[in-house]
Each structure stands twice: as structure tokens, then as C-alpha cells.
Amino acid sequence: MNEIEKFKHKELIDPQAQMVVSFLEQMGLPYENIIADQSQRQIIGQNLFSMINSLELENKKDARYLSKFVVGAGFGLFDYSINAIWNEVTLNLRKKAITYGLDIFYDAAVGGKARELYKSEQDLSSLKEAVLLDTCRKLELISDTTYKKLKHMLDMRNDIGISHPTNYSINAFELLGWLQNAITDVLNDKPTESALQVQAFIQNLKTQTTLIDASTKQTIESKIIELATHHLSHIMRTIFGIFVTEDTDPVVRKNISLIAPAIWENCNNEVKYKLGMLLEGYNTNLYQNKYKLGEEFFKIVNGNSFRTENERTIILDNLLTELLEKHNGWDNYQNEAIVVDSISSYIQEYSDILPNNVNKLVKVIFMCRIGKGVEYCQGVSPKGKLYYDNILNMLGDTHIPHLIASLTHYEIQRKLEKNICRKHAKDILVNIKSTIINERLIECLDYLIAKIDTNGKCVFETEFKKLSSSYIQWDKN
Questions:
Q1: pTM of the prediction?
Q2: CB-based contact 307:346 (threshold 8 Å)
Q3: Long-range contacts, stretch 472-475, CB < 8 angstroms, 24+ apart
Q4: Whole-number Å distance between alpha carbons of 302 and 243
Q5: 8 Å CB contact between 424 and 463
Q6: Residues 77-131: pLDDT tens digits?
Q7: How far apart are CA 14 and CA 385, in angstroms?
Q8: Which of 349, 255, 266, 357 lies closest to 304, judged by CA?
Q9: 3-class DSSP assignment, residue 349
Q10: Tens-digit pLDDT profile for residues 129-148
Q11: CB 445 within 8 Å of CB 401
């Protein structure tokens, strides 16, 4: 017979399904809620033909999930059918991730040490379905509306799917609704325009074989400020990963160095701190090449203040020791400036001053700022002076007592024996006073300003000790 036989919707409902249930009962096996009621299967049969017929042939010919759905629905195994739908959704979300770019997708999906384990398409299967779904939404590969529908579908699938036995019965309209969502929303949902821009940017950056010229750089930077901060955060995480990868083409790395500062400036602080933790992890886990490249990246974007507190404490301590050595050595004017420039990259605002470093920081910076007491350049590094003033003016009410206490240190006292050093000390105190709010601290500074120009030991006077006793613990003898 050459004609294709047409089936009516009622014939979709397998007449032997009820016989199987009866067999289960006879065998003493659970039989209730194993298959859907006849009335529910009829609803499926009445609606499924029109739904599937509305699809283009191109969308149906390889849709094995639809075949499995029909088989499950026909037998009344609705939980099997929902699994068939969800499996297709998962495959489609993975395809979206692959098309978008696995580097940026994994950067957004996986954090910490685990990121190193995700590289290929095969690794997508290791992602939890909830993470896959959340990341697709985060990167705007699916819309918020589609995400909400799929989130509900995933929750229901986990609660009532065939892999999670339950007494809950799926009704036909729920099942048809999930199928409709899968067909019309997920399979046809497209990434947002912003997501496509991010995808194209990363892809073009990785394949660029020539250096970006000034005009192109300016165009890129103008587009960057138009993107939402969460998109810029994804870009930042990805270009950092590309930059620290050893086999990255030098041209690509150079191009990243040209545009990274603008991206860094416009993305949120959360990703900056996360990259700081990632950088410390490279050092802890002995990825020395990645660590060195990461340090270079943070220097390029002026991001050292976002490195972890532990790293900053150690690095600053070493830099302060080096600065003091340069100050006491030959050609200190030039050498000091180089080191204090590095120190300033870690201290860009008040909150960057760390408790573990503050005593040494204040003492060393103050010593360098009051100089060596010689006539040439007034004993202070001309290039370093601006850095010193900037750091000292960040101290604020919290840290100014450390500066006052440092005046008693024997090295500073020895410097204050020289007229030029005392003059510098007075200038420093005058500048700092304008940043202080606490009236008692202002009174302490006024006392020192009035006397230090002629008496470097005024800090030891009984009257001053009494005035500053709320902030400095003086010896009673």
C-alpha cells in the first residue's frame, strides 16, 4: 500500500497501556499513578497534532525529543515526556554556550580553581543544569521571561520527573505548556544585542593579527562605556584569562593591554576583587608564569589596590623596605620615585591603607618626605614628593595618630635636628590638617605646627603628651 495512513488523535492513546497497569496490579507491583489517566491522555491526543504540525519541517526532522515526547505521552508516561523536553532544552542551552564562546561562558559559570578544569565542549556536561541555565541568563543568551519559565520547568522536572519518583501527577495541560515553552521560547530565543556585541568583541580580539591603531582603540573605548557593567565584568574576566595564558599570541596580548584599562575603569569592583583572588591563587598553586603575566596585567590596568589583603600586606612591606634602602643609598632622588610609584599603585584611597602596614608606611613615607636635610632639591626627591604628599594626605582621622607617634622615632628625631627637615615636617602637618575632622586631633596638629619649625622635640613636651593622650599611649616615666 503506497498511501500514507493518517491516524486520528484518539489513536495516539495506546489501548494496551491500561492492560500494562492491570498486569502490574496482578503481579503485586505499584500500579497507581504510574501512567496518566485516560482523560489526560486524550487531552494530549487532541492537542498534540496541531502543535507539532505548526512546526517547520526543518525543525521536526531531527527532533528526536519530540518523538520521545509523543511515545511517553501516548503511553501515559508524562514524567518520561517531561524528561524528553528537558533533555532537549539542555542540549539547546549547551549549543548556545558553544556558539557564544566557551571561554567567556566558562569564565561566567565557574569560579576559583575549578575554572582550570573547564575547557572543551565535552566539559559542558559537567556543569549542573541550574548553573547552565543561570549562566545563559547572566550572559543574556536567553531572555528573563524564558529563564523564569525554564527555571520553573527545571524545578518541576526535578520534583516529579522519572528520575525523581513522586506521587504527584502531571496533568496534560502542564505537559503541553512545557512543550510549548520549549518549542516557542527556548529553541527560538536569541541572545540580546549586547550579548552578541560581547561575543563578537571577544572573538575578534582573539583572532586579530595586527595591532589596534589609535582610531580603532578610541572607537572600542567609546562603545565600552555603552555596555552594562555586568557585560564588562564578563569581558574583563575573559581577557584576563586570555592575557595570562602562556600560548596567547603576543599581538593579542598587546591589544588587550591597550584596551584593558578602559574596560577596567568601567566594570564593577566585584570582578576586580575576584581577579585579585585569582591572581593570588596562581602564586599559591605555583603557576608562576601565569602569576607573572597576571601581575603585569594588574599593573597595566592600575589595579594593584584590588589584589588580596594578604598579598598587598606582603608586597607593601617589601616595597617599604626597598624604599628606605633607596632613600639611604646613592642617587636616592631617582631611585625613590620608582619604588614609591609602585607603592602608590597599591594605595589609591584611604581604604587601601592596611592595618598591618600602617606604622611602617607612615614612618618610611614621612622620613622620605622630610628628606635628608641638604640644600640640593631641599633634600627631597622631586619626583617622589608628589607621591609622598598624596599618601600622607590619605591618613585621615584614623591613621593620623600613627604619624604623630612616628615623630618620636629616633631616626626621624635625628632628621628633625636639621632646619630643612623641620621645615618640611611643618609643611606636611599643615597640609594634613586640612583633611582632619576631629577637633582634638586638629588641636594636636596646631600645637606641633606652632613649635616644630624651631623645636623638633616638641612632641615630647608634657603639655603635648597630655593633649594627645587619648590617641597615643605615652610612657609614664
A1: 0.74
A2: yes
A3: 472/401, 472/404, 472/405
A4: 15
A5: no
A6: 788 888 888 888 898 899 999 988 898 899 889 877 788 889 899 999 999 999 9
A7: 88
A8: 349
A9: coil
A10: 999 999 999 999 988 888 99
A11: no
